[in-house]
Amino acid sequence: MKILVMKFGGTSVDSPEHREIAARKVIRAKEDGFAPVVVVSAIGRRGAPYATDTLIEFLRGIDPSVPPNPRELDLMMACGEIISTVVMAHTLKTMGYDAVALTGGQAGIITDNEYGNARVLQIHPQAIRHYLESGKIVVVAGFQGVAEDKLGFHPDITTLGRGGSDTTASALGAALNAVAVEIYTDVNGVKTADPDIIPDAKTLPVISYEEVAEIAHQGAKVLHPRAAEIAMLHNIPLWVKCTFTDEPGTLVTSAEGAEGVDLPEVTGVTHITGKIVYLVFHIGEVPEKPEIELQLYRLMAQADVNLYLNSYSQDTLSFAVPRERWGTVQKLLDGLVMPAGNPVRRLVIFRVGDKPSREYQLQKQMIDALGNTIPVQEIPVDVLENCTMVSLIAAKLSRRPGVMALFLRTLYEAGIQVLQTADSEMSLSCLVNESDVERAVRVLHEQFVVNRAYAR
Amino acid sequence: MYEHVPQPRGRRFFIEQERGVTDVRVEVGLAHVRVRTGSGEEALQRHLQVLDAIAERGVSISLVKLHEEWLTFAVKQSDVPTVSQCLDTLGMEYKIVPNLALVITVSANMRESAGVMAQIAESLWEAGAHIIETGDSHNTVQCFVPEERAFAAAQALRRRFRLGEVAP
Predict the structure, then answer these.
(1) Does residue A387 contact residue A275 with C-beta atoms inside 8 Å?
(2) How far, in Å, CA of A146 to CA of A429, rounded?
(3) What residue of A is the nearest CA neighbor of B134?
(4) Given B80, B98, B116, which residue is the final one in a domain?
């Protein structure tokens, strides 16, 4: 039995016409001799009656001041995919093909009990295999599973977090030893850049698991990195295809699996859509600098703030925080007084931004009132708001001599201010002002993807 | 269209990898280079001048960072004489810190894991490994520390994240 997992996202199942197009692809696979396992997302996006966000808003709307219990929220969110599953199975039935709808739990997907972001632990695929062997098309609700049963009760429904339906498809592909997993979306494969910025961005015919995971982590929305990581772990060929065309799409495979096909030297240019705030702490060349840095990291950890682009110099510490957490970070830092040294040798006070805030002034007055008993040092914090990251994904190039120079020259010559850089085996990234993002993507794409200037 | 390669599967089958920190690695034999590039337009030209000159000599660099008045990067210890000669030729003011190591902490999704940096910094502090520079990607945090403290730092990290011991 050649099992083929086919996943359709929300926009592929959001109208009877789109569902029919998706169903015809499933039927064609069945007619070609495959045993299709279809994974569907909830129908439509925010505002659509059964979309996940709509269901969340409905629950939260009862009383916005009372957060829903995570267990009940998962139960609510899982409904969107279950509705979509039943609708798709029935659509197939109306087209003359026997299909069965399964929830994640009925499909045997077992997760840990982290509601809202559960990890797939195991899959018991017996039910799916049973239905496939009886000739049915199996339609599974994406984005969900059931928690491991520890108390002997019927297990709770869990959801898998962002990109959950992609994760379901890859996980089922691994558990069922599928010949391939096909992820259907509204673009015709993995592009060399966001087509909203570069309308003629190329579709990559083949890409490695590592590269697709990297572009997904660096902002591309075509496939969730967890799905790529599961496929990589179990060596399942993954395709990204368009629901609405018959174009071949992009094959995601291991570098070895791309025999006879050269993986590109440059995969593409990505950007993060969310804004980030970059902070530079002017701590100074003081003996307590490592201790102050450690205290700052602890403070951010206690506030549950993720940090990016950490960087040290002799007298500064820098890092970026997500824009949506900036309010919390600013409140924590501005006017914060911290003892430094053991025993305490000085007090430091953080001043955030150019103008001293009221909070800072109040704190400063209080510690000034301590007189000369202990030295007080001010730590100015530069704030660069509304930044974002643009990355060049180039696994074969990022460490090649001269590529970082070309990367920076391209940006400098376009008059783009580079606030910081980051590099890894897979990519080169820069932090730029949000107003420069589109231009940065364009010039890097032109230089590295279109002109292949690094090859000269 | 697709070839089917049957593989045996057990009843229980673990699908996703563990979350959180999964490995700690050490890379030795590195040096950290700090070049004074000044500020403003002049700095941009000097960044390119330095990076071009080093690339022309075939030296691979990593952990490139832009600081107020300074450009910093890492090179292999064996490339230090070439880099020094290159920067001398350019007449640059610079400082090279030799005998460093990268202690690399690997996690499935570092940028969505609040608190990992604090745990890394605490472990390195306890191991007496002063951080000279850091770099991060979505699945790693790389800390540049003196080579002599690198394995102690790695052991401290492995203890902290409950991983197996690392052989020096």
Answers:
(1) yes
(2) 38
(3) A311
(4) B98
